[in-house]
Amino acid sequence: MRLADVRGHDRVRAILARALARDRLPPALLFAGPDGVGKKTLALAVAQAVLCERAPAPDPPPNGKPASGGEPCGECRACRKISAALAPERLEELRNEADRHPDEDVWRNFRLHPDLVLAEGWWLTKAGRARPEPEIRVDQVRDLIAEIAGAPFEARRRAFVVDDAHTMNEAAQNALLKSLEEPPPRSHVILVSASPLALRQTIRSRCQLVRFGPLPRAAVAAHLVERRGAPEEEARTRAALAGGSLGAALAFESEAYGQMREGLVALLERAEALDPLARMEAAEALEQSEDPALLLTTLRSLLRDLLALRAGAPLESLVHADIAERLAPLASGRLGEQAGLLAERAGEARSALRGFANKLLTFDLLVDALAGD
Ligand SMILES: [Zn+2]
Protein backbone atom coordinates (compact mmCIF):
# COMPACT_ATOMS: atom_id res chain seq x y z
CA MET A 1 0.00 0.00 0.00
CA ARG A 2 1.42 3.35 -1.06
CA LEU A 3 0.39 6.71 0.34
CA ALA A 4 -0.56 7.69 -3.21
CA ASP A 5 -3.07 4.82 -3.33
CA VAL A 6 -5.21 6.42 -0.63
CA ARG A 7 -8.09 8.40 -2.10
CA GLY A 8 -8.31 12.15 -1.32
CA HIS A 9 -6.53 13.95 1.56
CA ASP A 10 -3.88 15.38 -0.81
CA ARG A 11 -2.43 17.82 1.70
CA VAL A 12 -2.23 15.31 4.56
CA ARG A 13 -0.55 12.78 2.25
CA ALA A 14 1.95 15.37 0.99
CA ILE A 15 2.90 16.41 4.53
CA LEU A 16 3.36 12.82 5.68
CA ALA A 17 5.33 11.86 2.56
CA ARG A 18 7.65 14.81 3.09
CA ALA A 19 8.20 13.88 6.75
CA LEU A 20 8.95 10.29 5.70
CA ALA A 21 11.29 11.32 2.88
CA ARG A 22 13.28 13.45 5.33
CA ASP A 23 13.08 10.80 8.02
CA ARG A 24 11.32 13.25 10.30
CA LEU A 25 8.13 11.42 11.13
CA PRO A 26 7.00 12.35 14.68
CA PRO A 27 7.10 9.44 17.16
CA ALA A 28 3.40 9.76 18.02
CA LEU A 29 0.65 10.72 15.59
CA LEU A 30 -3.11 11.00 15.99
CA PHE A 31 -5.12 10.57 12.78
CA ALA A 32 -8.50 12.12 13.56
CA GLY A 33 -11.53 12.42 11.30
CA PRO A 34 -14.84 10.85 10.28
CA ASP A 35 -15.28 7.08 9.92
CA GLY A 36 -14.60 5.50 6.55
CA VAL A 37 -12.44 8.20 4.97
CA GLY A 38 -9.16 6.24 4.86
CA LYS A 39 -7.40 7.11 8.13
CA LYS A 40 -6.45 3.54 9.00
CA THR A 41 -5.44 2.74 5.41
CA LEU A 42 -3.14 5.75 5.35
CA ALA A 43 -1.78 4.89 8.82
CA LEU A 44 -0.82 1.42 7.54
CA ALA A 45 0.77 2.92 4.41
CA VAL A 46 2.83 5.26 6.60
CA ALA A 47 3.80 2.33 8.83
CA GLN A 48 4.92 0.39 5.77
CA ALA A 49 7.01 3.36 4.64
CA VAL A 50 8.60 3.49 8.10
CA LEU A 51 9.66 -0.16 7.83
CA CYS A 52 10.56 -0.17 4.12
CA GLU A 53 14.15 -1.29 3.58
CA ARG A 54 14.68 1.22 0.80
CA ALA A 55 13.63 4.18 2.91
CA PRO A 56 16.07 7.10 2.85
CA ALA A 57 18.94 7.18 5.34
CA PRO A 58 18.55 9.78 8.11
CA ASP A 59 21.18 12.04 6.53
CA PRO A 60 21.16 11.52 2.78
CA PRO A 61 24.30 12.70 0.99
CA PRO A 62 23.88 16.14 -0.60
CA ASN A 63 23.54 14.72 -4.09
CA GLY A 64 21.53 11.71 -2.98
CA LYS A 65 18.01 13.07 -3.03
CA PRO A 66 15.53 10.61 -1.51
CA ALA A 67 14.20 8.89 -4.60
CA SER A 68 11.26 7.35 -2.78
CA GLY A 69 9.44 10.62 -2.09
CA GLY A 70 8.50 9.05 1.21
CA GLU A 71 6.66 6.14 -0.41
CA PRO A 72 7.32 2.51 0.53
CA CYS A 73 8.98 0.70 -2.39
CA GLY A 74 6.47 -2.15 -2.46
CA GLU A 75 9.21 -4.63 -3.42
CA CYS A 76 11.57 -5.13 -0.50
CA ARG A 77 11.14 -7.96 2.00
CA ALA A 78 9.38 -5.73 4.56
CA CYS A 79 6.96 -4.32 2.00
CA ARG A 80 6.12 -7.79 0.68
CA LYS A 81 5.53 -9.18 4.17
CA ILE A 82 3.20 -6.34 5.08
CA SER A 83 1.25 -6.56 1.82
CA ALA A 84 0.76 -10.29 2.33
CA ALA A 85 -0.41 -9.77 5.92
CA LEU A 86 -2.91 -7.13 4.81
CA ALA A 87 -4.58 -9.32 2.20
CA PRO A 88 -8.24 -9.57 3.27
CA GLU A 89 -8.12 -13.38 3.58
CA ARG A 90 -5.09 -13.21 5.84
CA LEU A 91 -6.70 -10.74 8.23
CA GLU A 92 -9.75 -12.97 8.37
CA GLU A 93 -7.52 -15.92 9.27
CA LEU A 94 -5.92 -13.93 12.07
CA ARG A 95 -9.34 -13.08 13.41
CA ASN A 96 -10.47 -16.68 13.24
CA GLU A 97 -7.53 -17.67 15.41
CA ALA A 98 -9.44 -16.03 18.20
CA ASP A 99 -11.87 -18.96 18.04
CA ARG A 100 -9.17 -21.15 19.53
CA HIS A 101 -9.58 -19.46 22.88
CA PRO A 102 -13.19 -20.24 23.69
CA ASP A 103 -12.79 -19.86 27.47
CA GLU A 104 -11.79 -16.27 27.69
CA ASP A 105 -12.52 -12.86 26.36
CA VAL A 106 -10.28 -12.53 23.37
CA TRP A 107 -8.46 -9.47 22.22
CA ARG A 108 -6.00 -9.27 19.41
CA ASN A 109 -3.02 -7.24 18.46
CA PHE A 110 -2.32 -8.29 14.90
CA ARG A 111 1.32 -8.68 13.98
CA LEU A 112 1.57 -7.75 10.32
CA HIS A 113 5.37 -7.91 10.33
CA PRO A 114 7.83 -8.60 13.17
CA ASP A 115 8.05 -4.81 13.56
CA LEU A 116 4.50 -3.74 12.76
CA VAL A 117 1.56 -4.32 15.11
CA LEU A 118 -2.03 -3.32 14.47
CA ALA A 119 -4.21 -3.06 17.59
CA GLU A 120 -7.95 -3.03 17.10
CA GLY A 121 -10.87 -2.56 19.42
CA TRP A 122 -12.27 -5.82 18.18
CA TRP A 123 -12.79 -8.76 20.44
CA LEU A 124 -15.06 -11.59 21.30
CA THR A 125 -16.97 -12.44 24.42
CA LYS A 126 -16.56 -15.71 26.28
CA ALA A 127 -19.40 -17.07 24.19
CA GLY A 128 -17.44 -16.29 21.06
CA ARG A 129 -19.74 -13.50 19.91
CA ALA A 130 -18.58 -10.16 18.67
CA ARG A 131 -19.22 -7.42 21.19
CA PRO A 132 -21.58 -4.67 20.14
CA GLU A 133 -19.20 -2.09 21.60
CA PRO A 134 -15.56 -2.77 20.85
CA GLU A 135 -13.11 -1.88 23.56
CA ILE A 136 -9.33 -1.86 23.70
CA ARG A 137 -8.40 -3.27 27.07
CA VAL A 138 -5.47 -2.63 29.32
CA ASP A 139 -3.91 -6.10 28.76
CA GLN A 140 -3.87 -5.40 25.05
CA VAL A 141 -2.16 -2.05 25.60
CA ARG A 142 0.37 -3.52 28.06
CA ASP A 143 1.32 -6.00 25.40
CA LEU A 144 1.70 -3.15 22.94
CA ILE A 145 3.79 -1.08 25.36
CA ALA A 146 6.29 -3.88 25.80
CA GLU A 147 6.58 -4.00 22.01
CA ILE A 148 6.94 -0.24 21.65
CA ALA A 149 9.81 -0.25 24.16
CA GLY A 150 11.64 -3.02 22.28
CA ALA A 151 14.26 -2.70 19.57
CA PRO A 152 13.35 -3.59 15.97
CA PHE A 153 13.68 -7.28 15.02
CA GLU A 154 14.28 -6.82 11.31
CA ALA A 155 13.52 -3.30 10.13
CA ARG A 156 15.20 0.00 10.90
CA ARG A 157 12.18 1.09 12.88
CA ARG A 158 9.04 -0.29 14.47
CA ALA A 159 5.51 0.98 13.89
CA PHE A 160 2.31 0.56 15.87
CA VAL A 161 -1.15 1.44 14.62
CA VAL A 162 -4.01 1.64 17.14
CA ASP A 163 -7.34 1.72 15.30
CA ASP A 164 -10.41 3.18 17.05
CA ALA A 165 -8.04 4.46 19.71
CA HIS A 166 -10.94 6.13 21.55
CA THR A 167 -12.20 2.66 22.52
CA MET A 168 -9.22 2.29 24.87
CA ASN A 169 -10.71 2.21 28.35
CA GLU A 170 -9.41 4.50 31.06
CA ALA A 171 -6.81 2.04 32.35
CA ALA A 172 -5.62 1.36 28.81
CA GLN A 173 -5.23 5.07 28.08
CA ASN A 174 -3.30 5.59 31.31
CA ALA A 175 -0.99 2.73 30.44
CA LEU A 176 -0.31 4.01 26.93
CA LEU A 177 0.44 7.51 28.16
CA LYS A 178 3.84 6.51 29.55
CA SER A 179 4.95 5.16 26.17
CA LEU A 180 3.92 8.38 24.51
CA GLU A 181 5.70 10.48 27.14
CA GLU A 182 9.06 8.89 26.53
CA PRO A 183 8.87 7.37 23.09
CA PRO A 184 11.80 5.09 22.26
CA PRO A 185 13.76 6.56 19.35
CA ARG A 186 13.01 3.80 16.87
CA SER A 187 9.27 3.31 17.49
CA HIS A 188 6.40 5.18 15.86
CA VAL A 189 2.87 5.05 17.23
CA ILE A 190 -0.13 6.11 15.12
CA LEU A 191 -3.49 6.42 16.88
CA VAL A 192 -6.54 6.43 14.60
CA SER A 193 -9.84 7.80 15.86
CA ALA A 194 -13.21 9.14 14.73
CA SER A 195 -13.81 10.48 18.27
CA PRO A 196 -10.49 12.03 19.32
CA LEU A 197 -12.19 13.99 22.11
CA ALA A 198 -12.90 10.68 23.85
CA LEU A 199 -9.14 10.35 24.30
CA ARG A 200 -7.59 11.88 27.40
CA GLN A 201 -6.25 15.35 26.80
CA THR A 202 -2.82 14.18 28.01
CA ILE A 203 -2.74 11.57 25.21
CA ARG A 204 -3.87 14.03 22.57
CA SER A 205 -1.29 16.60 23.65
CA ARG A 206 1.54 14.10 23.18
CA CYS A 207 0.55 13.25 19.64
CA GLN A 208 0.99 15.25 16.49
CA LEU A 209 -2.62 15.77 15.39
CA VAL A 210 -3.36 15.05 11.72
CA ARG A 211 -6.92 15.99 10.76
CA PHE A 212 -8.89 14.23 8.06
CA GLY A 213 -11.99 15.79 6.53
CA PRO A 214 -14.81 13.98 4.73
CA LEU A 215 -13.95 12.91 1.19
CA PRO A 216 -15.35 14.97 -1.67
CA ARG A 217 -18.37 13.30 -3.28
CA ALA A 218 -16.58 13.07 -6.63
CA ALA A 219 -13.64 11.21 -5.05
CA VAL A 220 -15.93 8.63 -3.46
CA ALA A 221 -17.81 8.15 -6.75
CA ALA A 222 -14.55 7.82 -8.71
CA HIS A 223 -13.29 5.16 -6.32
CA LEU A 224 -16.51 3.14 -6.69
CA VAL A 225 -16.27 3.28 -10.48
CA GLU A 226 -12.53 2.69 -10.90
CA ARG A 227 -11.83 0.19 -8.13
CA ARG A 228 -15.18 -1.50 -7.63
CA GLY A 229 -16.59 -1.39 -11.14
CA ALA A 230 -19.82 0.29 -10.04
CA PRO A 231 -21.94 1.84 -12.81
CA GLU A 232 -21.45 5.62 -12.86
CA GLU A 233 -24.98 6.56 -11.99
CA GLU A 234 -25.12 4.18 -9.05
CA ALA A 235 -21.71 5.39 -7.90
CA ARG A 236 -22.92 8.98 -7.85
CA THR A 237 -26.00 8.07 -5.80
CA ARG A 238 -24.01 6.02 -3.32
CA ALA A 239 -21.40 8.76 -2.97
CA ALA A 240 -24.07 11.39 -2.42
CA LEU A 241 -25.76 9.35 0.30
CA ALA A 242 -22.53 8.35 2.03
CA GLY A 243 -21.76 11.91 3.16
CA GLY A 244 -18.03 11.84 2.39
CA SER A 245 -17.37 8.39 3.83
CA LEU A 246 -15.92 5.86 1.43
CA GLY A 247 -16.53 3.18 4.06
CA ALA A 248 -20.25 3.96 4.10
CA ALA A 249 -20.40 4.04 0.29
CA LEU A 250 -18.73 0.61 0.09
CA ALA A 251 -20.92 -0.92 2.80
CA PHE A 252 -23.99 0.14 0.91
CA GLU A 253 -25.98 -2.75 -0.56
CA SER A 254 -27.34 -1.51 -3.81
CA GLU A 255 -30.12 -4.07 -4.20
CA ALA A 256 -31.61 -3.50 -0.77
CA TYR A 257 -31.18 0.19 -1.34
CA GLY A 258 -32.99 0.05 -4.69
CA GLN A 259 -35.99 -1.61 -3.04
CA MET A 260 -36.04 0.89 -0.23
CA ARG A 261 -35.91 3.86 -2.60
CA GLU A 262 -38.66 2.34 -4.74
CA GLY A 263 -40.81 2.07 -1.60
CA LEU A 264 -40.20 5.72 -0.80
CA VAL A 265 -40.97 6.97 -4.32
CA ALA A 266 -44.18 4.90 -4.33
CA LEU A 267 -45.10 6.43 -0.97
CA LEU A 268 -44.51 9.96 -2.29
CA GLU A 269 -46.62 9.19 -5.37
CA ARG A 270 -49.64 8.17 -3.34
CA ALA A 271 -49.02 10.34 -0.27
CA GLU A 272 -52.00 12.61 -0.80
CA ALA A 273 -54.43 9.77 -1.39
CA LEU A 274 -53.66 8.02 1.90
CA ASP A 275 -56.55 7.68 4.34
CA PRO A 276 -55.72 7.61 8.07
CA LEU A 277 -55.48 3.83 8.22
CA ALA A 278 -53.18 3.67 5.17
CA ARG A 279 -50.99 6.33 6.75
CA MET A 280 -50.56 4.23 9.87
CA GLU A 281 -49.68 1.24 7.75
CA ALA A 282 -47.15 3.27 5.79
CA ALA A 283 -45.55 4.50 9.02
CA GLU A 284 -45.34 0.94 10.33
CA ALA A 285 -43.65 -0.18 7.12
CA LEU A 286 -41.06 2.60 7.46
CA GLU A 287 -40.51 1.70 11.10
CA GLN A 288 -39.58 -1.85 10.05
CA SER A 289 -36.72 -0.55 7.91
CA GLU A 290 -33.37 -2.17 8.65
CA ASP A 291 -31.53 1.11 8.34
CA PRO A 292 -33.81 4.00 9.35
CA ALA A 293 -30.96 6.52 9.10
CA LEU A 294 -30.27 5.61 5.47
CA LEU A 295 -34.02 5.58 4.75
CA LEU A 296 -34.42 9.11 6.09
CA THR A 297 -31.28 10.33 4.32
CA THR A 298 -32.69 8.92 1.09
CA LEU A 299 -36.10 10.50 1.68
CA ARG A 300 -34.45 13.85 2.33
CA SER A 301 -32.36 13.58 -0.83
CA LEU A 302 -35.48 12.69 -2.88
CA LEU A 303 -37.30 15.73 -1.51
CA ARG A 304 -34.29 17.93 -2.22
CA ASP A 305 -34.29 16.65 -5.78
CA LEU A 306 -37.95 17.74 -6.07
CA LEU A 307 -36.89 21.18 -4.91
CA ALA A 308 -34.04 21.25 -7.44
CA LEU A 309 -36.33 20.13 -10.28
CA ARG A 310 -38.78 22.87 -9.37
CA ALA A 311 -35.98 25.41 -9.48
CA GLY A 312 -35.05 24.17 -12.97
CA ALA A 313 -31.73 22.61 -11.94
CA PRO A 314 -30.04 20.48 -14.65
CA LEU A 315 -30.95 16.78 -14.41
CA GLU A 316 -27.35 15.65 -13.97
CA SER A 317 -27.11 17.63 -10.74
CA LEU A 318 -29.79 15.46 -9.10
CA VAL A 319 -28.83 12.72 -6.66
CA HIS A 320 -31.56 10.55 -8.18
CA ALA A 321 -31.06 11.54 -11.81
CA ASP A 322 -31.83 7.97 -12.92
CA ILE A 323 -35.49 8.34 -11.89
CA ALA A 324 -35.92 11.99 -12.86
CA GLU A 325 -38.96 11.23 -15.01
CA ARG A 326 -40.80 9.87 -11.99
CA LEU A 327 -39.77 12.77 -9.82
CA ALA A 328 -40.78 15.48 -12.31
CA PRO A 329 -44.58 15.12 -11.83
CA LEU A 330 -44.10 15.09 -8.06
CA ALA A 331 -41.98 18.23 -8.28
CA SER A 332 -44.71 20.18 -10.03
CA GLY A 333 -47.38 19.20 -7.48
CA ARG A 334 -47.99 19.96 -3.82
CA LEU A 335 -45.05 17.84 -2.65
CA GLY A 336 -42.75 19.95 -4.80
CA GLU A 337 -44.15 23.10 -3.25
CA GLN A 338 -43.47 21.86 0.28
CA ALA A 339 -40.32 19.87 -0.53
CA GLY A 340 -37.97 22.21 1.32
CA LEU A 341 -39.93 22.02 4.54
CA LEU A 342 -40.49 18.27 4.21
CA ALA A 343 -36.79 17.63 3.58
CA GLU A 344 -36.09 19.49 6.79
CA ARG A 345 -38.64 17.31 8.60
CA ALA A 346 -36.91 14.17 7.31
CA GLY A 347 -33.58 15.49 8.58
CA GLU A 348 -35.10 16.28 11.99
CA ALA A 349 -36.60 12.79 12.18
CA ARG A 350 -33.17 11.30 11.55
CA SER A 351 -31.63 13.37 14.35
CA ALA A 352 -34.53 12.46 16.66
CA LEU A 353 -33.99 8.73 16.08
CA ARG A 354 -30.37 9.07 17.14
CA GLY A 355 -31.69 10.10 20.54
CA PHE A 356 -34.50 8.45 22.45
CA ALA A 357 -37.40 9.40 20.19
CA ASN A 358 -40.19 6.86 19.72
CA LYS A 359 -39.56 5.40 16.30
CA LEU A 360 -43.15 4.66 15.30
CA LEU A 361 -44.42 8.03 16.47
CA THR A 362 -41.62 9.77 14.56
CA PHE A 363 -42.64 7.99 11.35
CA ASP A 364 -46.38 8.61 12.04
CA LEU A 365 -45.74 12.34 12.16
CA LEU A 366 -43.53 12.25 9.11
CA VAL A 367 -46.07 10.36 6.99
CA ASP A 368 -48.77 12.82 8.10
CA ALA A 369 -46.54 15.65 6.94
CA LEU A 370 -45.97 13.95 3.56
CA ALA A 371 -49.73 13.39 3.21
CA GLY A 372 -50.28 17.10 3.60
CA ASP A 373 -51.35 17.56 7.24
ZN1 LIG B 1 9.97 -1.49 0.70
Q: Explain this structure to me?
A:
The chain is α/β, with parallel strands linked by helices and 373 residues long. It has 16 helices and 6 strands. The longest helix has 21 residues, at 334-354. The chain is elongated. The model has no long low-confidence stretch (mean pLDDT 87). The structure holds zinc ion (ZN).
Bound ligands: zinc ion
Helix content: 40-55%
Taken from the alpha-carbon principal axes, the silhouette is elongated
Nearest-angstrom radius of gyration?
Answer: 25 Å
Spatial separation of the terminal alpha carbons? 55 Å
Q: How big a fraction of the residues is strand?
A: 5-15%
Derived from helix and strand composition plus strand pairing, the structural class reads alpha/beta
Overall pLDDT level: 87
Q: Count all strands and give the number.
A: 6
Tally the helices: 16
Low-pLDDT runs of 5+ residues are: none
Q: What is the helix/strand order?
A: HEHHHEEHEHEHEHHHHHHHHH
What strand order characterises the main sheet? 2-3-4-5-1-6
The main β sheet shows up as: 6 strands, mixed
Topology:
Layout: H1 10-21, E1 28-32, H2 39-51, H3 77-85, H4 88-96, E2 106-113, E3 116-124, H5 138-149, E4 158-162, H6 170-181, E5 187-193, H7 201-206, E6 208-211, H8 217-228, H9 232-242, H10 246-251, H11 254-270, H12 276-287, H13 292-310, H14 324-332, H15 334-354, H16 359-371
Parallel strand pairs: 1-5, 1-6, 3-4, 4-5
Antiparallel strand pairs: 2-3
The protein binds zinc ion.
The site of zinc ion has 9 residues, from α3.
